[in-house]
Amino acid sequence: MDNSIGSTPSNQSNPFEQLTQLAATQKDEQAKVLKDNRAHEFALEFAKSNVELMMMGNRVQNFDDNLRMFHKSYLDAKKAFLA
């Protein structure tokens, strides 16, 4: 084993290599967090649009129900007037 100046023991890794590995690990973790955040944002937007569609569907259904009730009362009133 060579213990001269500038040599590194075989059981220690190069500090530059350690920093490179750490940076790669952090980059992978950041990419995963970013992907998770994007998935979360997409899911929220999807849920919001579904709620908006359901509300719109309810308004259409309510309008349709109100129109049917109006038409029925109109026909009843017309029948009563003509009787």
Would you mind describing this structure in some detail?
The chain has 83 residues and is mainly alpha-helical. The protein has one domain. Helix content is 82%, strand content 0%. It is built from one helix and no strands. It has one helix at 15-82. The radius of gyration is 35 Å and the shape is rod-shaped. The model has no long low-confidence stretch (mean pLDDT 84).
Features:
83 residues, mainly alpha
Structural domain tally = 1
Runs in which pLDDT lies below 50 for 5 or more consecutive residues are none
Radius of gyration: 35 Å
| Major sheet details | none
Order of helices and strands: H
> SS-based structural class?
mainly alpha
Strand content: under 5%
SS elements, strand count: 0
- Cα(first) to Cα(last) distance is 117 Å
Bin the helical content. Answer: over 70%
Tally of contiguous helical segments: 1
pLDDT averaged over residues: 84
Shape: rod-shaped
Quick overview:
The chain has one helix at 15-82. With 83 residues, the chain is an all-alpha fold.
SSE blueprint:
Blueprint (H helix, E strand, L loop, with lengths): L14 H68 L1
